[in-house]
Amino acid sequence: MSARLDVLQSALENAFGERIKLVRDRGEITVTVRAEDHYQVAKTLRDEPALAFEQLIDLCGVDYSEYRNEPWDGLRFCVVTHLLSISHNWRVRLKVYAPDDDLPGVASVTDLWSGANWFEREAFDMYGIVFDGHLDLRRILTDYGFIGHPLRKDFPVTGHVEMRYDAEKQRVVYQPVTIEVREIIPRVVREDHYGGGVH
After folding, report:
1. With pLDDT > 90 as the criterion, what percentage of the chain qualifies?
2. Domain count, the chain
3. Domain presence at residue 165
4. Cα-based torsion angle of the residue sequence 42, 82, 15, 101 in order, rounded to the nearest 10 degrees
5. Are 57 and 82 in contact (CB under 8 A)?
6. Has residue 182 got a pLDDT over 80?
7. Is 100 helix (H, G, I), strand (E, B) or coil?
8. CB under 8 Å to 11, separation ≥6 — which residues?
9. Would you say residue 95 has pLDDT above 90?
10. Cα–Cα distance, 54 to 112 (Å, whole number)
């Protein structure tokens, strides 16, 4: 496995040089690129015979605003793509940070891997990341009238509105949230000789 990663790392470094930041950890390689290089690097990952990443396995958004419950010093939104080379039997993780936190956007890769279509729509719906060049970028999991992006860390846990079926109107209606926000701390009760040990 290590020898295979050595070959992949060498192929990546030969193809991209200083345009990528490569991290090798836990038997995996992660390549981070600037937003302006994202599309061209993705295209090379697919088309370069020494790399040949024919298949997109996954693409998702990430909100780093409070990474590991700590303040984050860097760009907030990231798109992470997992690619597979069937011919070489290796994988790579491609990361790109959106350069604008207020209107996050990166290049779409749907014309490189058609399987990215719904993944990009999901990242748009959940995080508000815009994929430049996507031909049908619209919500995929939430309702068309939904306000906000529910996987952003600043989105309220209860949401903004709730929907229910109104029997009188015979349709779904939206109303302000009626859930009372409260913090529940579990009560732990331990007996004196909990666990049956000798004291």
Report:
1. 71
2. 1
3. no
4. 60
5. yes
6. no
7. coil
8. 48, 50, 51
9. yes
10. 9
